[in-house]
Amino acid sequence: MHGTSSQGFAVYPAIDVRNGRVVRLRQGDYDCETRYDEAPLELARRHARAGARWLHLVDLDAARQGGYTLGSLLREIRRQTSLQVQTGGGVRSQADIDALLQAGAERVVIGSLAVREPDRVLGWLTRYGAHRITVALDARRCADGEWRLPTAGWTEQGAQLLEDVLDRFADGGLRHLLCTDIERDGMLSGPNLDLYRRIRACAPHLELQASGGVRDLADIAAARGAGCAGAVLGKALLDARFDLVDALALEVAPVGRPC
Question: Which residues does the entry assign to the active site, renumbered to this chain (predicted)?
């Protein structure tokens, strides 16, 4: 299978929340935080008015400490907008997934737990259906050239190889994969297209979401051209380096169209 998935390409404006505020971290570092004035709910409403279909909502407090805290915000976003919400942060149990789905999440994002306890997450794929789970494999390239996966948020470097975990989930029925090159997250240095092509070669049936490094419309188009099924837009969108309406137009633009 080549190109994007049969479901088409999707743009995911991201809202990362810490202590009730919209923030962005640099390379996952909680000590390198940029705060934004707009309230999370109003920002979600603005994205919806621009025509967004999806929202990527992250609970940064829960990602660090466990215990998802954005249930009320999630319910209000679903009540006040037509956005489909992909959300996570601190998902540790079946009860967590049940609560998020009941609050209106379309997909639940599972990160570190998928690396530490893949059997549990594979069981949830069976229980809830592959359309309800997004696995986030956030990777860092090490000195030996291998891509390895953190085991606790982005704060503890693990020994597991990206390809090994990816193979296990691809064989276990995973459909939605979000992959972040940690070194590029929040850095406006462009997405790691080589990494995404590598993942596509290993697991071409997965619907891969590019995350980390997007700085302009050309980067979004390049991610789509590399076979990604979506792109998560964080700092560049919050910093108004491009308009969301123009980014959304790339969902349906012919591949290779210049920006």
Answer: 16, 138
